[in-house]
Amino acid sequence: MHTADSVLIYRQLGNRMSSASTSASDASSFSGYARKMAHPKSNMNIHLDNHFKSKIYTSSSPISGNVTITTQRDVRFDSVEIILLGVARTRVDGVSSPHESSHTLLKIPMPIPESSYPVPRVLEAGREYSIPFNFILPNHLTLNACGHRVDSDAVHQSHLSLPPTMGFVQGLWEKDDLAPQMATIEYSVKARIYKDPEMNGRPLKIMEATEPIKVLPAYAEEPPLNITKNDKLYRMTKTKSLRKNIISGKLGRLTASAPQPGAAFIGPDGKVASNTAAQVELKFEPSSPDVAPPKITSMSGKITAHTYYSAGPISSFPNLSDFNSGFSIERRGSYSTSVPVFSSPLDNITWATQVIQERRDSGYATESDARTDSEHSAPERSRRGSKQLHTKQARKSSASASASAPSASASPVFHAATLHVPIHLPAAKRTLLPTFHSCIVSRVYTLTLSLTLSPSAGSTASSSSTTLSLTLPLQIGVDTAGSPAHLRLQQENPAGLPSFEAAVQEAEVDEFLRPRLLSVPDVQFSRDPSALPGYAVHG
């Protein structure tokens, strides 16, 4: 009985304590809410006009809005800063710790007139202040954005182009932009409130707000790359010897080659504006005339995005050199990922048989040279003997004949075919960034075309198939000329204010077409016969 009474007493005490604790918690929450209502928290927000989360800004796009400020108590300040900021960041894993670098690409301050500041410069509690701003996204960066040493003017010019936003992992894009965590490019509108220090020093930052934006600048088509044997990233030509099986003799040699395809373009909204196409040239050189060309069974293609990043400035085009050779010294890295674009069988390939033409002009030149040597070398024959000269002429004739005429074992014919391959960009599931090069981050693309073939058109299904692949450079640009955003911008701005580059170009054209006055100069020469001709005095 004593135990039951004790348990009952403990339960009642516990319920009372729990009720008291709940009441105290509710009272505390209410008092905190009351204090929050009585003294609202200091807040600083950036509001962009006509902005939404997935909106993309391109070259010459206006970025306008206002900064609102509210405080919970009177705050004294000295200045407000509103800037359009672009920063590239990289992280390279080192031996002991990762090395992080940042490079300020763009920093445009918004001038704030003195009339916008309150007098005195005190933010009163509970009052909302609004400061408007207006930026225009530039087409190019300033010269100060790239001040390091470069290998060529082309590299410097590329580094002055505005790079796009990069960083799907950081949440900057809704779809995968094929970029690694080690490289990001961020754009934002940033607002800060400063207070001057009492003593000499840096201004004290009181409040700060940031609004990120997505940037996809315009990129025009560049000239084709000059690919050399040192550029390991690309393979424009591939040759492979064909056999029926391992122990059989060679059926012939197949060579596939392709030039760089034209650039593919996306719009400023990230959607595909125009696709491109590749043209593959096939040449089969059989070992004998009765060997049929191989059967191309299928073809597939993939687009690979190559992202290069470095802790220090990049002085060359990373895709046209062995970029990773100085990784341990210069702290650099690369990241590649692929997206398949098509895979389809091929049935109707038309081979054209062509006859190898002999170079008869070389033979005529050899006979003429031999005749000339025999006519003008009589004194030499008397010294060296005719036998040595005859041996030299025989070697020259045989070498010329072997270079001009085909060998006896080679086939006098070859087979050629051309494949037209349309390429569609996978923009529905990926965010495709344009091809660009900046000081510490670069992005290029390659198009890999793989041909699956049987050694001969008459081979059986059990015959082993082989694959021949080409890796071509692929440029992706951003076209804003006929985009809906560009047309909407023209409607919003019917005056059509030109960009700085367009204004400079128009001024150069006006200067070139400016009328010129041509007249005979009024020059009178002295008739003094004693004066030298070169020192005649002009009238």
Automatic annotation (TrEMBL):
<feature type="compositionally biased region" description="Low complexity">
    <location>
        <begin position="397"/>
        <end position="406"/>
    </location>
</feature>
<feature type="compositionally biased region" description="Basic residues">
    <location>
        <begin position="384"/>
        <end position="395"/>
    </location>
</feature>
<dbReference type="InterPro" id="IPR014752">
    <property type="entry name" value="Arrestin-like_C"/>
</dbReference>
<protein>
    <submittedName>
        <fullName>Putative arrestin protein</fullName>
    </submittedName>
</protein>
<feature type="compositionally biased region" description="Basic and acidic residues">
    <location>
        <begin position="360"/>
        <end position="383"/>
    </location>
</feature>
<dbReference type="InterPro" id="IPR039634">
    <property type="entry name" value="Bul1-like"/>
</dbReference>
<feature type="region of interest" description="Disordered">
    <location>
        <begin position="360"/>
        <end position="406"/>
    </location>
</feature>
